[in-house]
Design brief:
The protein has 97 residues and is mainly alpha-helical. It has one domain (13-85). Helix content is 48%, strand content 4%. It has helices spanning 13-23, 32-38, 53-63, 70-87, and strands at residues 47-48, 51-52. Strands 1-2 form a two-stranded antiparallel sheet. Helix 1 runs antiparallel to helix 4 (70-87), helix 2 (32-38) packs antiparallel against helix 3 and helix 3 (53-63) packs antiparallel against helix 4 (70-87). The two termini are 19 Å apart.
Length: 97
């Protein structure tokens, strides 16, 4: 769960998705489309078709509750912190901590 540089820039979403795919054996059918979308995204400000990266990450987290273990906890925390960083200074209705 490291950041890409010393300025706390989040890792690209595609890198996070690759780590998830490497760790999660049989990916839950409901989480899979969101994980595949994350694999095509760079930042939380990116778009996937008409969907925001933010919504893709939120829906992935909603459907990834059955992914467990230390790596799962670390990556879910990383994704949540990226979402929280997005909401600093602005109201964020999609993700509530």
């Amino acid at each position: 769960m490291s950041t890409s540089d010393t300025h706390n820039t989040p890792r690209p979403l595609y890198a996070i998705a690759a780590d998830i795919m490497a760790d999660w054996g049989k990916i839950n059918y409901a989480a899979k489309p969101y994980l595949e979308a994350m694999a095509d995204l760079d930042t939380i400000d990116s778009m996937y078709g008409l969907d925001t990266a933010k919504s893709v990450v939120v829906y992935f987290l909603s459907n990834a509750q059955c992914w467990r273990g230390q790596k799962a906890r670390e990556i879910k925390l990383e994704l949540k912190s990226i979402l929280k960083g997005l909401s600093k200074g602005a109201k964020n209705d999609t993700f509530k901590s």
